[in-house]
Amino acid sequence: MSLLRVTGIALAATGAAHFAAPQVFEPVSKLAFPEDTGAWIKRNGATELALGVALALTPTRKLGLAGLAAYTAFLGARGAANMKNA
Question: Can you tell which superkingdom this protein's organism belongs to (predicted)?
Answer without folding.
Answer: Bacteria
